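B., you asked whether I could sanity-check this one before it goes into the benchmark set. Here's the sequence:
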Amino acid sequence: KLSLTAGVDYTNRNDKTFGNPEIGDGAPAGRASATYYNGTGINLQQILSYKKQFGDHNIDIIGGHESYSLLENSLTGSRSQLISAGNYDLVNFTTTTNLSSATDQRAVEGFFTRFNYDFKDKYFISLSGRRDGTSRFSPATRWGNFYAVGAAWRLDQESFFKDISWIDNLKLRGSYGETGNESIGTYYG
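And here's what the prediction gave me:
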């Protein structure tokens, strides 16, 4: 089975604040700020999956690719010294106290696979692997490999648990895995 998924997240935000010149944080001169933000994130996934039962044996295999890109733009400005009451646009203030802009662009690529096996819905093994690359790291260290393994045993399916009526489902399970983290800011070095 092949599944293709595409998602777009578009955010456009305009925030304005006004500090009254008569009372509060804006006194005695008045102040205003404005922030404009635009962000577009695109996520694409292609997943190939296969399931098969061979008597008491069940396998479930998937493999796929995922890509994500994000482009963000923002502009923030603050001014003080209100000129004329009733107009809260930044042009109606005389002194610029803050002005900044930023562009943030990043991308992530990933390739992954997972293999699940069970025997008689009683004994389970799961193996997975992932290779991810992110534009947040330098080209020399951009890619990482991550693996996981897990096993489980449904004790409630064993004959010595069949006579215990107050246990519906009892599973013993353990796993080990690795994961990565790219939360270092957008531009390496």
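One thing to flag: The first strand starts at residue 2 and ends at 19. Otherwise nothing jumped out at me.
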